[in-house]
Each structure stands twice: as C-alpha cells, then as structure tokens.
Design goal:
By secondary structure, this protein is α+β, with helices and mostly antiparallel strands. The chain folds into two domains: 65-74 and 185-392, MetI-like fold (Orthogonal Bundle), CATH 1.10.3720; 99-170, no CATH class. Helices cover 56% and strands 13% of the residues. The protein has 15 helices and five strands. It has helices at residues 7-17, 29-43, 47-56, 59-74, 78-81, 182-218, 220-235, 238-247, 255-285, 289-296, 301-309, 314-337, 349-353, 359-364, 372-392, and strands at 102-105, 108-122, 127-139, 141-151, 155-163. Strand 1 (102-105) and strand 2 form a beta hairpin.
Length: 397
C-alpha cells in the first residue's frame, strides 16, 4: 500500500518529463522597454484613437472614407466644377453621344481634347446621327471663363474648372432631349442627392435616439407604448407608404418645400430601426454602476441619457448612421424616378433618371442611364465605410 499523496512529488515528476528551452542570446533590455512603451501607448490611448487605428487597417473602408469626403467637399463648388451651367441648352446637339477624350492627334501630343461633332438627320429612321470630325480638334481649357452662373444662388460668376474650346463643345457624357450636358447635370444633382441623405438622417437620428432613449431608460409602460408604435410603423409596406405620403404633398409647393417634405417623409419612416437599437443598449446600460452613481448624485434623466449612456455606444451609432444614409439616397432616387419625389427645376440623380423611363430612349440613348452610376458607387462606398466603422467600433476585439 502506497503512502499518502504528495502534490509536490507529482509536480517534480512532471517537471522531469517536460523539456525546458531557454534562449541562449544575451538579454536585451531595450527590446523589453520598446514593447512596454508600445503596450502602454495602446492601453492608454483614448477610444477614438483605438477606433482610428483599427479602421486604417480596413483598406476598402479607408478608400471609401476619402472618396466620400472628396464627394461632399466637391458639392460645395459644383458650379465651378461643372463645365456648363445647369440650364445651358444647345439645340444643335440634342441627344448628342458622349465625346471621347483624346491626348494625341496624328502622333503628336496635344493635351486633353475632343473632336468636334458633325450632325446629320437620318431621313429613314428620323434619328439624329453624330460623327466625330478629326479635322476639328477642340482642346479643353482649364481654369477658364465659361457659362454665367450664380454661385450658391447669390454671387454672379463665370469661372469654371474646365471649359470647352472657344466655339466648341465638351459633352463627355452626352446630352439630353433639350441639349443639356449630362455630366454637368450629374454634378449639380450630387448636391441635392447627397444633401438629402444627411438632412434626412439627421431628422431620423433625432427621432430614433429620443424615442428609443426614453423607452430604454424608463422601460415599463413607456417602453410598451413605444414598441407598439414601432410595430405599427413597420407593419406598413415601405414603398406604398412612401408613395402615399409623397402624393399628398401639394403641387403648389416651391421646390425648396418639396425638398424638405421628401426629407421629412424619409426620416419619419427610417427612425424605428435606430430606436430599437438605442432601446436595447440603454436597457443593458441603465443597470451599470456609473448610471446608478449618476442617479444618486441627482443627475436628470436627460443628462444621464445624453451625457453618460449615449457616449458608451456612440461608435455603434456612427456605424448605423453610415449604413442608413445610402438607404435615404436610394429612397429619394426611387421616389424622384417615379415622379413622386423631387421635381424640376430641382435636379437630383433621381430626377435625371426620369429621362430614361422609356425603353426606346434607353435603347437609342443609353448614356441617359449614366446618373445611376454615381448612385451605385456612392451607396457602395457608404456600405464599405459602415462595415469598416462597425468592425472598428470594438477596438479590443
């Protein structure tokens, strides 16, 4: 019969069986200090810096961020960037196809230029036909005087970033049924389409955070009422509800009021999802020690919600915001395309797409579908940006 069990004997036996390895290189304290400094820099960094460090590793999201930043800065100067004024017409070039950009003419470098277009009417099909004339070399001018416009509707100017040659044309994306440059109208339309996403999401966030914050903080019967209201709003089909609310806007309203009306409609239908997300977060955070401490110190519910609870998941709100803006842009585009959203003289990407409602127009003049390209690219950029922010929202993961 063996003696009593001794844990130290068992530990010594296991130690004898295991192989030990030691690094024969001399100890370098500098490497340890460098690692310690890096760790200290990481653990003492504020939350926003941790999020930025992790966000930079998401290359697609970073590219989308800079692209969208450039896009939103450019809408401040659309009158300067566009080669033509929004309403400039050229009746000699109705439904003109896109002009190709060239740099070399007969083997010699000329710089960016386009060839002039010769127009003829096909008497059999009654279709306007345009052909490039290599004898008409029309160099593109930069930082030049062109069509007159009112910068932001206030300052008369004629300065443009690029202009057609004197007496020439510059229709890089073709023209529409009135001879207006499609590229210039897409640039002008970006101001409305991108702005309506920001303004609409601002209203939506105000409603979602306020209503969801009250429901999550108080709970009980307040939460029950809010949840039933959200269920009622979400029970309606979105597109028919959009159409119904848009149809009740008075036709006598000015374009500016129609813009705010459409924005308000989109915001009223977008807030329930955010409200539920905020409610679920506050239900979990209201029992935390810092919330109880703020209550015991006499802080008001408004201060606790917006000063203590909201910042705790602000990164998630930012990610939700970037994922909601493309929905607003698509909704405005769909409503305007169906004729129930914005109307001329307001120009947005959805309004431009109304030109391509007829299948005959699409078949004969496919460049009228080009306003859909910036919609697709912008929505994809917002989605990539939202994915990157969502992954970076938890920097310790």
């Amino acid at each position: 019969m063996s003696g009593p069990f001794n844990p130290s004997d068992r530990r010594d036996e296991l130690a004898d069986r295991l192989e030990h390895w030691s690094n024969p290189s001399p100890f370098d304290p500098g490497s340890v200090e460098t690692m310690t400094e890096a760790q200290e820099r990481y653990f003492q960094a504020p939350a926003w810096k941790l999020i930025w460090w992790k966000f930079r590793r998401h290359k697609l999201a970073l590219i989308s961020f800079w692209f969208l930043l450039f896009l939103y800065i450019s809408i401040l100067f659309v009158e300067i960037i566009a080669p033509y004024n929004l309403q400039s017409r050229n009746s000699d070039f109705i439904y003109a196809p896109p002009q190709s950009l060239h740099f070399f003419h007969e083997g010699e470098f000329v710089g960016p230029f386009v060839y002039g277009l010769d127009y003829s009417l096909n008497m059999e099909t009654l279709k306007r036909e345009y052909t490039e004339n290599p004898g008409k070399v029309q160099p593109i001018r930069f930082f030049c005087a062109g069509d007159d416009y009112a910068f932001w509707g206030m300052i008369p100017m004629d300065f443009h970033l690029i202009c057609p040659a004197e007496g020439g044309t510059l229709y890089l994306l073709g023209t529409d049924r009135l001879g207006r440059d499609v590229l210039s109208r897409i640039i002008y339309g970006a101001r409305i389409s991108l702005t309506i996403g920001l303004v609409g999401i601002a209203f939506s966030f105000l409603l979602g955070i306020s209503i969801g914050g009250v429901a999550g903080y108080y709970g009980g019967w307040v939460d029950s009422i809010v949840q039933r209201l959200i269920e009622v709003v979400r029970s309606f089909p979105e597109i028919p509800l959009w159409l119904a609310l848009s149809a009740i806007l008075p036709v006598t309203w000015s374009p500016l009021w129609v813009f705010f009306g459409i924005t308000l409609i989109l915001a009223l239908l977008d807030w329930p999802g955010l409200a539920r997300a905020v409610r679920s977060k506050l239900l979990a955070l209201r029992e935390e020690d810092f919330t109880v401490a703020a209550q015991l110190m006499g802080a008001s519910p408004k201060r606790i919600i917006f000063r203590h609870l909201m910042p705790s998941f602000s990164s998630h709100l930012i990610a939700s915001l970037t994922l909601s803006i493309p929905g607003m842009i698509l909704a405005e585009t769909a409503l305007s395309f169906l004729g129930l959203g914005l109307r001329p003289p307001i120009t947005s990407w959805g309004v431009l797409l109304t030109e391509a409602q007829s299948i005959n127009v699409v078949e004969l003049y496919p460049w009228l579908l080009l306003p859909a390209v910036p919609v697709i690219v912008t929505v994809l950029a917002f989605n990539f940006l939202g994915d990157g922010l969502r992954d970076a929202a938890d920097p310790y993961r």
